[in-house]
Amino acid sequence: MITLMPKEAYRNKVKKLSLVVPVFNEQDNLHEFYKRTSKVCANEPYELQMIFVDDGSSDNSRLLLRELCEQDSRVEAYFLSRNYGHQLALTCGLDHAQGDAVITMDGDLQHPPELIPELLRLWEAGNEIVQTKRMATEDAGYAKNLTSSCYYRLINALSNVEITPGGSDFRLMDRVAVDALKQYREKARFIRGLVKTLGFRESTLEFVAPPRFAGTSKFSLKKMLHFAFDGITSFSNLPLRWAFYVGIFFGFASLFLLLHILYVTYITGDIVPGWPTTMCCMLFLGGIQLIGIGILGEYIGRIFTEVKNRPLYIVSRHIKNAK
After folding, report:
1. Cα–Cα distance between 50 and 75 in angstroms, integer?
2. Are 312 and 71 in contact (CB under 8 A)?
3. Nearest Cα residue to 152 out of 232, 85, 237
4. DSSP per residue, 84-116
5. Which of 41, 128, 134, 188 could make a disulfide contact with 166, Cβ separation 3.0–4.6 Å?
């Protein structure tokens, strides 16, 4: 178990800033990201630690990261043994970050490095978490913006934890907040929600995300749906309750249908073979049951994953040039 140190314990030593950057096939962005980030951080009075976590890239990202580590002793890279996903790559970086302040950001430059000074000023003002809020993305279409807005409305309606609409994994966290987050070790991780459960003093910084510097997004529709469902099931059991409520509703509806059948059979005598009605009812109610079983299965599957207690990730290489 991790013991949290009071924030005052960090104030009398040289401050260290850690940047945690997950990487997946970003060979065309790495040098530009490093150049812009280094330029911004050169004006800040902090000792810099830049952590890149390669999440199983298949391009030349690892080769470029080795070169950056050789050129700059402040840079280190963790190579995961396979692709574990964005949230676990972030977790790996947070686990190894040593800074008094830790900034997590993507390496595609849609999280502008030029915002780092503003994040630090808000931290210096006493905020233990500085969450960025994406107001718009310059190259995002209407459909993506609409689905994102609907998703945040849905998850906030389901969950007791308020997730910032437009929030991202571009944030600054104080050392105390990072140590608290490291105690959360569930496999299906939705870090935006986990951070919200910590309860530390928080501020929000709004920004407009620029287009990617190069390449295309690695978040496919399948990955986005999986990520969205992880967020809902990690912070809400309402889908289970909804399945129960739907079952109760149609149970009562079936009773009324039974009364109608008895009335037609014994009172009016106007009975017609009801094969179409019977089949429609069976198919409809069967579909509702399968939905309920599917929702239940998702939660049971997550329980099964957790009780196996496998490691969140495996690091195959740690590259650091200790000059």
Report:
1. 5
2. no
3. 232
4. --HHHHHHHHHHH---SEEEE--TTSSS-GGGH
5. 134
CA–CA gap between residue 146 and residue 167 (Å, rounded): 15
Q: CA-to-CA distance for 33 and 31, rounded, in angstroms?
A: 5
Residue 12 amino acid letter: N
User: Residue 151 and residue 145: Cα distance in Å, rounded?
Assistant: 10
Q: Kindly report, residue by residue over 222-244, the tens digit of the pLDDT.
A: 666 665 666 566 666 666 667 66
Residues 48-75 as b/e (b if ≥16 CB within 10 A, e otherwise) read bbbbbbbbbbeeebbebbbebbeeeebb
- The helix/strand count (H/E) of the chain reads as 10, 8
Q: pTM of the prediction? A: 0.74
Two tokens, residue 248 = 């109760």
Task: Determine the distance from the C-alpha atom of residue 90 to the mean position of all C-alpha atoms in its chain, rounded to a whole number.
Answer: 9
Residue 219 near residue 147 (C-beta atoms within 8 A): no
CA 174 to chain centroid, in Å, comes to 19
Question: In the block, which residue shows the tokens 């310059």?
Answer: 138
